[in-house]
Write a structure and sequence with these properties.
The protein has 832 residues and is of the alpha/beta class. It has three domains: 104 residues, no CATH class; 370 residues, Rossmann fold, CATH 3.40.50; 326 residues, 3-Layer(aba) Sandwich (Rossmann fold), CATH 3.40.50. It is 47% helix and 15% strand. It is built from 34 helices and 24 strands. Helix 2 crosses helix 5, helix 7 crosses helix 34 and helix 12 runs antiparallel to helix 13. The two termini are 43 Å apart. The structure holds N-[oxo(pyridin-2-ylamino)acetyl]-beta-D-glucopyranosylamine (475). N-[oxo(pyridin-2-ylamino)acetyl]-beta-D-glucopyranosylamine (475) binds next to helix 7. Belongs to the glycogen phosphorylase family.
Amino acid sequence: MSAADKVKPAASPASEDPSAIAGNISYHAQYSPHFSPLAFGPEQAFYATAESVRDHLLQRWNDTYLHFHKTDPKQTYYLSMEYLQGRALTNAVGNLAITGAYADALKKFGYELEAIAGQERDAALGNGGLGRLASCFLDSMATLNLPSWGYGLRYRYGLFKQRIAKEGQEEIAEDWLDKFSPWEIVRHDVVYPIRFFGHVEISPDGKRKWAGGEVLNALAYDVPIPGYKTKNAISLRLWDATATAEDFNLFQFNDGQYESAAQLHSRAQQICAVLYPGDATEEGKLLRLKQQYFLCSASLQDIIFRFKERKADRVSGKWSEFPSKVAVQMNDTHPTLAIPELMRLLMDVEGLGWDEAWAVTNKTVAYTNHTVLPEALEKWSQAVMKKLLPRHMEIIEEIDKRFREMVISTRKDMEGKIESMRVLDNNPEKPVVRMANLCVVAGHTVNGVAELHSNILKQELFADYVSIWPNKFQNKTNGITPRRWLRFCNPELSEIVTKWLKTDQWTSNLDLLTGLRKFADDEKLHAEWAAAKLASKKRLAKHVLDVTGVTIDPDSLFDIQIKRIHEYKRQLMNILGAVYRYKKLKEMSAADRQKVTPRTVMVGGKAFATYTNAKRIVKLVNDVGAVVNNDADVNKYLKVVFIPNYNVSVAEVLIPGSELSQHISTAGMEASGTSNMKFSLNGCVIIGTLDGANVEIREEVGQDNFFLFGAKADQVAGLRKDRENGLFKPDPRFEEAKQFIRSGAFGTYDYTPLLDSLEGNTGFGRGDYFLVGYDFPSYIDAQARVDEAYKDKKKWVKMSILNTAGSGKFSSDRTIDQYAKEIWGISACPVP
Ligand code: 475
């Protein structure tokens, strides 16, 4: 049956009346010609509903654009190669406060809103924490009415879909645009030329200019981002690469040379084909650099266009005004090319001199660091850079030269440090540009993402710069949006919170959650809290059954670790712990087993396609699960499940249903973590190390409500040295767990290389670099404390309540408010 058979179509702008909304949905089903008008299945219902909601968004988005144009406030532009948006429908109707109206409207067609929302594909234009942080930030920027936009790339295929096969993880292209995205608006009026390769021309008056090479176009797609209960909607502008008709060689085509006729078109397609193309080859590296430049150049041309558009007289200059109207935030070093690109546009296109251009650039750009892992600090080959971006390389060389001169002339005492602080590393074997150094030298502010991480930046990674620019360095502890990560993903718990706080204002003022503390021992609250958790656990159990076929018991302790698979995050320690638990259960008498706290250990996450040890870890979790879950002696007390294809919408099911969550990285290595905040907010207790934001979470929720173990960050270097010097004595339990795997208890796959990475000096020559062996005994002891605590239901529910109550600090509204005041210098600009 078609939508029109059920509800009369109406083009009227959507209102908040369910009948009018139903008419509007029916209208979109009929007149947005994506599907046959005869059928109205759940998929069609999703697209028609989304288009109807988009009408609301567009109204706000247009109003906001005009309001910003008229009032001309200072505006922030967030440059990020990644956004992990996930699904948008539930969030959009929630933020617009029209969830009930849309739920009622859909009932007229016989549909539940939740089921229709489940039809949407995740927009996974990011890898992990950094990308999801960018998405939480957009939600907070809109909610706080801040004049700010995000810029990114419109990848054709997002983060790969993960399938678990016999050999382990398989990657499949994630086709989020398979049909189309109802949320994006293609902007044929917003197009900028982007040049690659070519050469630098010098005119008779000595002016330098980039010319030649090939020129593609950047075409804008706008995704409106609604704030929570505000009229403001901001923009996430995603760039796609295109070539023009002029680039199509009709002569060659008619001559049968089809491929060479459309060469530039196919090169344009490559730019935004995939998120993070493999960079093991030179081609892969070049493509990644092209992507980065494409984002930076298109965004800066657009920013300059808008700067001029908002006041007619800016066409003729007033560049010193630019930093009072524009703030550019670089999300890690991936958009570092914004620095030389802004310099180039100001000097070569707008005609400024170096000093003037440098002053403007320096006052405009700021840099957030998200990692201290040496292998994750970007370095680009000078040769590749020279070939692809010859004019930018000149500018970078000049920045490097001037920085050296400045240090030599003003800081004699720092001379010995210059080589490591320089932007260029001229090591003859492999000359590179150090992108983080460029960001520190050129930006006005550098920030880390949690207290501990920011201190490590100041004391270690960037210590030398601190002595030159003591005021450049800041901390901005990460946050998460309480809308998506409690209000919308956990409606049961949200209702309880609202009921006990007697207000739902916590949704945009998360500090109000502390008001729950005074009810932490209230038996009525305990009963409601436990019932909500059980409902979420059942939903989680259904998801697990659907995607893995494994039945798990909602009365067991749900213990979850979900995040990218990485050795520093130590999923391997988790699974060794599960193996040890399994072995002890096997050795126990049946009577003793009955005293054990039943547990379901769940692990989820994607391994980078070429990261061999991470893929081995995925395989090991699956292999351990296959044995344990089918062992009738013990599977009442332990299940081990690998959750495939972890993504934002899976997180929205898993986090509310978890009770214990693992954040167990080697201290000093996880810059912040943000899922730790989501778990804690949803009343889940953390077992973790003193790393990243765990430190601050533990402070906020109280040390009794956090299971702490492991070495501290300042011990790690010494422990590694001891280990190298043969001073490490492994705990017998650690040896036992490894030996059990080596014995073949979990199948015939060869885990030797993985386990060897935990031994002496064999792990890539750095022997258990992540200190699994050192932390294992205290981890096992902490897990034993968890088992005991869980037996006391009252105690556990209280810990759970106090975790939620102590999570107020971790709202991204707080984080963004601090960025706005302390880095960007922008203020709210609400649409009247
Ligand atoms: C940290 N991703 C978390 C989170 O601040 C932190 C790196 C290279 C290329 C592509 N993506 C990346 C990251 O570095 C990343 O996700 N970093 C994470 O940023 C937000 O909470 O501790 O590991």
